[in-house]
Amino acid sequence: MSARAYAITFRAPPSRPISQRMKPSSTQVRAVLQALDTFEIEVPSWGFADTGTRFGKYLQDAAAIDLNDKLADAGQVHRLTGCCPTVAVHVLWDFQPGQKPAEVMKLAKKHGVRIGSINPNLFQDQHYKYGSFGNPRAEVREAALRHVVESIELGQQVRSDLVSLWFADGTNYPGQGNLRERKHWFEQCLKAAHRKLARGQTLLVEYKPFEPAFYATDIADWGMAYLMAKAAGPQAKVLVDTGHHYVAQNIEQIVAWLLDEDMLGGFHFNDRRYADDDLTLGSIDPYQIFRIFHEIHAYTAERGKAPKIAYMIDQSHNDKPKIEATIQTVMMAQELYAKAALVDHAKLAVLQGRERQVDAEEMLRRAFFTDVTPILQRWRKANGLPADPLAEHRKSGYEKAAGAERKARRKALGLGAGGGYA
Ligand code: RM4
Ligand code: MN
Ligand code: MN
Rounded to the nearest 5°, which phi and psi values hold at 116? Predict the structure, then answer.
């Protein structure tokens, strides 16, 4: 090996102590503050309600009972974090039949938030036993399409530009369905739904490998979601739910490819250990989310413009206090987004071009291990927000007051341990 190659390969480690090497430069601080200025994340209404597993659910006094409670809780999260102005809603779980969209908008406004993505429900009604858009019965496919169209119209009425589609469709046994025919039904229904979109509305197509179907899920992975979104029309994009992948899958590569194809519509963030666990973001693998954000920042740096991506949370806080879990999630998302913004993309490109594998990887590792808390606190202070939203929430007494009031209201309404899923 030549002396020159030796010098490159075994470059002596920098003599400065690690703590100093991890201290962000003023350029990095600026990059992080700028990134935080544009980062918003949508909270799910169902994250404030009592949820559980198929084995049952444990109830919390402070859990939201109705849409007003959910919007109030979301308002508390936004007041403290300043980056959650919208709330995702599930049509079936959140809207009463005949409820006026204008009233819902007013309610959201009262709590300082707006209605975000509209999620139709295509899995709870009995007629969806064998699917919705993939159901062999034409009348069920038509009913599913009607519900999606109603959801699109509802989105227009509440001035929300996202309709988010997740299908529980699939089959449980080999031979049960014609896989290609089901694909065709999906294409037809998605096209028909797309025709109803207003300008500015986006249709998000989510995928999930299994559950509730355990043999063949109709939209099982990002490639299938990509094809379905393409078939639907130009306003349809792919929705990546971080929990909807097999364990070893490289999610950031999927993100990079979808970005490159201009087909990444948004995220449902959560963490997982086994399957679709819906655990708190970053509780198991924060580096995974960092790597996803790194791909997005790299793309933004290259194009000079941030892509339009809907960052959304999709979690069920089965046994954690719900607002605390949501604040924890939002803070984690901000922190990882900030850490990823530390990476100097021009420098990384040089290292990549020179095949400096270890140094390139170190750039990512160092960014990940840098403490960005002081920058986050500075950003919060500049925006009139508490330095520690979680601590502030605990201090506020919100949970206790909500618990007492909702417990009494549940009793007055005669709501027992049963109740709807969300
Ligand atoms: C799915 C998926 C969807 C959610 C449904 C209820 O696992 O993540 O986004 O709406 O659950
Ligand atoms: Mn999801
Ligand atoms: Mn899920």
Answer: -100, -135
